[in-house]
Amino acid sequence: MSATLLANLSRTTDPQTMLRRFLALDAVVTTTNGLVYVAASGPVGRLLGVDSGQLLAIGVFLVLFGAGVGHLASRRQPAAFPVKAVIEANLVWAVVSLAALVLWFSPTAAGTFWIPVQAATVAGFAGLQHLALRARG
Predict the structure, then answer these.
(1) pLDDT digits (tens, 9 = 90+) for 110-131
(2) How far apart are CA 9 and CA 80, in angstroms?
């Protein structure tokens, strides 16, 4: 990905601001997803073909993780170590999501679509965060 594309995505050329914006976007999307899973684990679980108890637990985790990422995004200069931890957690989440699709879940058609889409989204956040962290130096 070019620096120009990265700058266009974040609407700034400042690597620090890029990083904070990508972390903030991750936090908003993750927390929102988690809140939906918590508030509607039964209907969403049926829609996706995922056990509602598992979805509730996933939702609680996502809300907590999203809040932590949001806190990190609010820092003027997020430290590299926690940013790297978020990047690695996002990559693990993407891989485990795809593995769960095959190994543990019996998804509906909606779940078969949604699970890879959310895995790709999370992997995309990891990639953008990594590039912004690297540009920051």
Answers:
(1) 999 999 999 999 999 999 999 9
(2) 21
Which of left, alpha, beta for 112 (phi over 0: left; psi -120 to 50: alpha)?
alpha
Neighbours of 67 (CB within 10 A): 14
Rounded to two decimals, the pTM is 0.87
Dihedral over Cα of 65, 57, 59, 51: its sign: positive
Distance between CA atoms of 105 and 98, rounded to whole angstroms?
10
What are the boundaries of each domain within the chain? Answer: 3-136
For residues 90 and 33, is the Cβ–Cβ distance under 8 A? no
For residues 16 and 133, give the distance between their C-alpha atoms in angstroms, rounded to a whole number.
8
